[in-house]
Design a protein that fits this description.
Elements lengths: L1 E7 L10 H10 L4 E8 L2 H6 L8 E8 L12 H19 L5 H6 L8 H20 L3 H4 L2 H12 L5 H4 L3 H14 L18 E4 L7 H10 L3 E5 L3 H8 L5 H21 L2 E4 L2 H9 L7 E3 L10 H4 L6 E8 L8 H14 L4 E5 L4 H18 L15 E4 L9 H6 L1 E6 L8 H8 L3 E5 L4 H5 L4 E3 L4 H12 L2 H18 L2 H17 L7 E2 L5 E2 L34 E2 L12
Parallel strand pairs: 1-2, 1-4, 2-3, 4-5, 5-6, 6-7, 8-9, 8-11, 9-10, 11-12, 12-13, 14-16
Antiparallel strand pairs: 14-15
Helix pairs in contact: 1-22, 3-5, 3-7, 7-9, 9-12, 11-12, 15-16, 15-20, 18-21
């Protein structure tokens, strides 16, 4: 099977999002071929390069989203009229009341497509067909024609209030953002030598990454699978408030419609947890198409610690993660002040690096607060003081690896106010550690009764839960063992790979044959690459294997003929 893996700002770039799970998936499915189609987000990301790729990644094609490339396409009169009609229709849908932020917050209707969804789809695929015929639309999407079409839609009767208030700078910003989001329309990825040759498109995230899959489905009938470990539409809603209201409204309407179209056209949509799955349903995904596939974690680095739970310091609490305001270390420090009143010998290790300038400022604030709450303590008048709270990073002599951080304490604490899938919590579970966590994101789903959960922003509840575990070593041991067993059952790389392997086979088995390959006798072959061609044995002269094609083609008018027999694998000679 040949898989077209679609990413945006992710695999195979070194600094890409979802790089680890994509790499583990590709390496774990060595029996399949992968074509990677990657959209990059920045020049820095491209300069950093790719991670090493396994040999069954057949090709990698990339395109930038961070710069506007002049495709040099000049539309003729008829093409300009088609562009104006299609883009004007798309802009009208975005400005209409049903595409507003308020309607999006209520959640689009599930099931049969709405008239607005049909209008959006017709406009989107009309632009895609025009881009395919003309060679690109990047220039047209940034042109005065596009801005005027947006302005007409905003001033038309029925446009919602935020759109009516859009000014020229707002319209220019929206046109620029839409050109970036629609840049896949102008790519040459959808021909017979591109996505037309794959058996399945797998979008590794929603949003713009799914757009090439939608176009491949539209042009060549390739089935689409969408995976979201963090719902892209939800991320857009949470990060857009800094924009002017008109820009925020129009872009939210676009991303809302694009997500609804991807959910509607995909054969299956997978979420990384039930929390993300509920968001997908709220954003318009059909419940019948949804599957939950937990992220796969590599359990090997944590095996030694998980099998030796007695190595932990029974009087130490550990926090591990990225230092940023969403992690609410301030509440953790106040909770630790309450813990010290009841258990004076307890220590707290905060292990993690700040994320960006905001994280660095937050780390400085937390250090200052820790110094105020816990003045350096000394055993005597001639001894140096010591603060019970330490701020450390992975990679030092005391904590060379993440597993060493979890090994240093008997209880791992998560104090976040916002969390998606808590990877650090799973790591602690793999290490066999008892945990105290705030009830955010997918925490309860991950813990499943193997740890203590308290409300967020509640230092007293956090302190009481930590004290309860510090005073009960037998309970800590039971919870840690149960947590490790749950993590090994649900959150390993092996279960993730097995789940996607089954989904791939299910989708392809339900997809009509698009290419007919015949053997030398004119009989159809069920697969272009027969399964027996991968078996490492020597074929006898009396029973040759089925012929196979090394590069299956797109059969538009007549069936393709299979080539000669497959040579015996080198390992069998």
């Amino acid at each position: 099977m040949r898989i077209g893996l679609l990413t945006e700002g992710g695999y195979p770039y070194v600094s890409g999002d979802a790089r680890l799970w994509c790499d583990r998936l590709v390496r774990g499915l060595g029996q399949h071929e992968f074509d990677v189609y990657a959209l990059s987000r920045s020049e820095h990301q491209e300069d950093e390069g790719w991670i090493p790729l396994p040999p069954h990644v057949r090709r990698v094609r990339t395109a930038p989203l961070w710069m506007a490339e002049d495709d040099g396409v000049v539309l003729g009169r008829r093409a300009r009229r088609r562009f104006t009609d299609c883009f004007g229709e798309l802009a009208t849908v975005l400005c209409g009341g049903s595409g507003s932020v308020a309607a999006a917050a209520q959640g689009p209707s599930r099931g049969a497509p709405t008239p607005e969804a049909d209008r959006f789809a017709n406009a989107l695929y009309g632009l895609a067909e025009l881009a395919r015929e003309e060679g690109g639309l990047s220039g047209a999407l940034r042109s005065e024609t596009a801005v005027r079409a947006l302005e007409r839609a905003c001033r038309a009767p029925g446009a919602h209030r935020a759109a009516r208030e859009a000014r020229v700078p707002d319209l220019l910003t929206v046109a620029t953002r839409l050109e970036g989001a629609l840049r896949p329309l102008s790519l040459d990825w959808y021909e017979d030598d591109g996505l037309g040759t794959v058996d399945l498109c797998h979008a590794a995230s929603g949003g713009t990454a799914a757009l090439p899959g939608l176009l491949a489905r539209h042009f060549t009938g390739v089935p689409l699978l969408v995976t979201e470990y963090g719902v892209r539409l939800r991320t857009h809603y949470l990060t857009a408030p800094d924009s002017p209201p008109a820009v925020r409204s129009l872009l939210a309407a676009f991303h809302n419609r694009l997500a609804a179209e991807a959910y509607a056209r995909a054969v299956l949509v997978t979420a990384g947890n039930t929390h993300a799955r509920r968001w997908q349903e709220r954003c318009g995904a059909d419940r019948e198409k949804l599957r939950t596939v937990y992220p796969g974690m590599d359990a090997r680095p944590f095996a030694d610690v998980g099998e030796s739970p007695e190595c932990a310091d029974p009087g130490t609490l550990v926090w591990v993660g990225r230092v940023e305001p969403a992690k609410d270390l301030v509440s953790l420090l106040h909770a630790f002040a309450e813990i010290r009143k009841q258990e004076p010998a307890t220590r707290l290790r905060i292990v993690g690096a700040p994320t960006g300038p905001e994280g660095a400022a937050y780390l400085g604030h937390c250090r200052t607060l820790a110094a105020q709450l816990f003045p350096d303590e000394a055993d005597g008048p001639h001894a140096a003081g010591d603060n019970p709270v330490s701020f450390e990073e992975i990679g030092g002599p005391e904590l060379p690896a993440r597993s060493d951080a979890y090994a240093s304490g008997a209880v791992t604490v998560l104090s976040s106010v916002v969390e998606g899938f808590p990877i650090g919590l799973v790591e602690a579970m793999l290490c066999g550690r008892a945990t105290v966590s705030t009830d955010v994101g997918a925490v309860v789903e991950v813990i499943g009764g193997t740890g203590l959960v308290v409300p967020p922003r509640n230092p007293r509840a956090l302190a009481e839960a930590c004290v309860a575990l510090l005073r009960d070593p037998e309970r800590r041991a039971r919870l840690g063992a149960a947590a490790r067993a749950r993590a090994l059952e649900l959150f390993t790389v092996e279960q993730n790979i097995e789940a996607f392997h089954g989904i791939y086979l299910e989708i392809v088995s339900r997809t009509p044959v698009r290419r007919v390959v015949l053997d030398e006798a004119g009989e159809p072959l069920p697969f272009a690459h027969p399964a027996e061609s991968h078996v490492p044995v020597r074929w006898s002269a009396a029973t040759p294997p089925h012929p196979a094609r090394t590069t299956p083609g797109w059969a538009t008018g007549r069936p393709a003929r299979g080539t000669g027999p497959v040579p015996a694998p080198e390992g069998a000679r």
